[in-house]
Every structure is written in C-alpha cells, then in structure tokens.
Write a structure and sequence with these properties.
There is one protein chain. The chain is about 55% helix and about 15% strand. The protein is an alpha+beta fold and about 400 residues long. It has 2 domains: about 180 residues, no CATH class; about 180 residues, no CATH class. The strands form 2 sheets. It has a 9-stranded mixed β-sheet with strand order 6-7-5-8-4-3-10-1-11, sandwiched between helices.
C-alpha cells in the first residue's frame, strides 16, 4: 500500500480527529495570511497616498493636522481655510521651490452623485500644480478644462455618459486615477475655475450652495529646492508664517502609523498564541492517534514495513490534513479581505489596498507553507516515537 493511500485511509477512518487537525491548520494559515495582507496592504496604501500627494511639505491652518490626514486617508471631507497670500509668503522663503494651493471641498450630504454620504473634492491650481498636472499630461495629453474632473478609482458617472451632477452642476469625468486603498479613491479632483463656477451657479441650482470664502485656500503643497533640507524649510514656515502648521511628508499620517503598529502587535500576539496552541493540540491529537494504532503499526512492522515507512506514513497523513486545512484557511481569509475590505478599513480605521496578483499568490503560498510546517512540526515527535517502537511489544499491548 502506498503512503498516500494509507494516509487517506487513516484520515477517512477518523473523521473527528482529522477535523481537529484541519481546523488548527485552517486557523494558523488564515491568521497568518490575514495579518500579512492587512499590514502590507495598509503600508502600501500609505506609500501610494504620499506618492500621490507628491509634496515634501503640506501647509495647513493650525489645528487642521488631523483633519487633513483623515481626509486623505479615509476620505472624510475636510473644510478649513487660510489666507491665499500664504502661498506668496511661503514661496518667498529661500528653500521653497514650487508652491501650489489647494481647496478642500465636499458635495452635499446625501447627494445622488455619491456612494458615500458626502464626497471629498480637491480643487487645484493648474498653473502651479505638480501633483495632478503631470499625471494628466502623461495619460490624457492635456490639462482639464472648465467643467472637467478626474476621479479616484471609486468615482463613476451618475448622469449617463461621463457626467456627474455636483451642486446641480454637470461635470465631465475625464478619467480615473489608479487605486491607492485610501480616501483618495473616492475623491474628485477639479480646477480652481471649475470649483468657483460650481460655487457661483450652485446659488440657484442647488439646495444648498457651495461656499468658497474669497481669497482663501485650504492647504499649500510645497516642493523644496534641490539640495535644500525639507525640515529646515518647514521650520522657516513655522517661524515666519503665522497661523499655519507645516507637515513634512515623512511625518504625514503619524497617528495612523501608530494605530497600525498597535494593531499589528495585537494581531501578532493572537497569531502567536493561536500557533502555539494549535501545534500543542495537533501534537496531542497525533500522539493519541498513534497510541490507538500501536497494534496496527506493529503489524505493519511485522509485515516488513520499515521504520522509515511508518514515520513517513504518519507525516504524509499530517501533510494531507495540513494542506486541506491550510488551503481552506487561506481561501477564507482572502475572500473575507476582498469582500469586507471597506468594513475592515472603517472598523480598524486604517487604509487598505489588496496586493497585485503576483504578490497575492506569493502570500497565499506563504500561508500554506506555514500550515504545512506547523502541522509537520506537531506530528514530528509522535511519528519519531512510534516509528521506533518494537513491533513485538506493540502487538502485545
């Protein structure tokens, strides 16, 4: 009888015992995959958000630091203002290179344009912008005209064709940006001219008008000159421009990074505890199973089976159970992350982006290998112990 057939026969003949081992392997693989994908997905989202931002320093009004992080990462609309002449004051500093203003707006609450209660809108200045403009030139070959917008990956037309109604104003969706797993995916980008035109016409076309305070902006993105130190420029801004706070890109999203670190510790603790308990339980199950099969193993040895064959048969049984449990575990974990990723983002308060197909397959493989190794380690000692027993003594017991 082959090792595989013998393993299958033992598995089918002991359903409860096999089910316990499969459940342990399932938990180990599922927790490992969930932890890895969640943390890597969150880190990838943070990196992509910073890349999309494209600034060395973000300048916002004092007290708005948390609001801008929530807006950019979780898509929570932010409304705050500072004087427009802040841009000129920053640009006059020695180390400041490009400085571009932005307006942070939001659609009406419950508007038909949005899948969320209200959608974040970012208006930018095409003349000075260095974040959206390069992408437009590369992918569309030109800038946005008045009445045109680009959207995150979750933005879609609602009025037929490529039109979206915002404050009673029809804008044309030119294209969608790549997914980042952050609030930028549900953000609409438009020019200052379009934003002001919407605000002007919203007084008569919308239930509630879009209000943009005159001579005001929400934030200023700063790219420092080559060779200049971003930290030194940030200190200059803090010391010379009143009422604003400069946030260096390296310090962006610190609260979310801290939250992710705490979450990672908790999940790793649960994973470690699950792994230890699973190995202990599997080892106990295999020890009990081998003890029940003493006579059977003794007969196998008496019929000419070598110690190596007995040892390998027990490890083959463990391998089959680990593969089945691990495959089910990684399948369930992957499906749960895919179906409930939005719920996970809201519940844990972190951004999340599923990896590429290649990276996902690699993580699935790692989860399956961990299940195989865990069950193999748990079954190793019982397999060694009972493969070395004396056949005559085993048959008499």
């Amino acid at each position: 009888m082959s090792l595989f057939r013998l393993a299958l026969k033992n598995i089918s003949g002991h359903g409860f015992r096999s089910g316990v081992v499969i459940l342990c392997a399932l938990l180990v693989a599922a927790f490992a995959l969930f932890t890895t994908l969640l943390m890597r997905g969150a880190e990838t989202s943070l990196r992509l958000a910073l890349d999309r931002l494209g600034a060395d320093i973000v300048v916002v009004p004092s007290g708005a630091e948390t609001k801008i992080e929530s807006a950019l990462l979780m898509g929570i609309p932010a409304r705050f203002w500072m004087p427009q002449d802040t841009v000129a004051k920053i640009a006059a500093l020695p180390g400041a290179g490009a400085v571009s203003p932005q307006l942070y707006l939001a659609t009406l609450t419950g508007a038909s344009c949005c899948d969320v209660s209200d959608m974040f809108m970012i208006a930018y200045d095409p003349q000075s912008d260095f974040t959206i403009q390069p992408w437009l030139e590369k992918n569309l070959g030109n800038s946005l005209r008045q009445g045109e917008v680009v959207g995150g990956s979750f933005i879609h037309a609602t009025e037929g064709g490529q039109n979206i109604k915002v404050y009673g104003y029809l804008v044309t969706l030119r294209a969608n940006l790549e997914a980042t797993g952050t609030g930028l995916d549900q953000t609409m980008f438009l020019t200052f001219d379009t934003a002001r035109d919407i605000a002007r016409l919203s007084k008569t076309q919308a239930v509630s008008p879009l209000v943009i305070p005159p001579d005001s902006i929400s934030a200023a993105l700063v790219k420092v000159k080559p060779g200049s130190d971003a930290h030194a420029v940030a200190l200059q801004i803090l010391q010379t421009v009143p009422g604003v706070v400069p946030i260096e890109s390296s310090n962006m999203f610190q609260s979310y990074r801290t939250q992710m670190t705490s979450l990672l510790r908790i999940i790793l603790s649960v994973l470690g505890l699950t792994w230890v308990l699973s190995i202990a339980l599997i080892s106990l199950v295999f020890s009990m199973a081998a003890n029940e099969r003493r006579k059977e193993l003794g007969v196998l040895r008496a019929m000419g089976a070598t110690r190596r064959f007995v040892f390998q048969s027990m490890l083959a049984e463990a391998g089959v159970l680990a593969f089945v449990g691990g495959a089910i575990g990684i399948g369930l974990a992957g499906l749960a992350l895919y179906l409930f990723r939005q719920f996970i983002m809201i519940s844990f308060g972190i951004p999340f982006l599923l990896p590429s197909a290649g990276a996902l397959l690699l993580q699935l493989g790692i989860g399956l290998v961990l299940a195989l190794v865990s069950v193999g380690l748990a079954a190793l000692f019982p397999a060694l112990k009972f493969s070395r027993q004396d056949p005559a003594i085993a048959m008499r017991e």
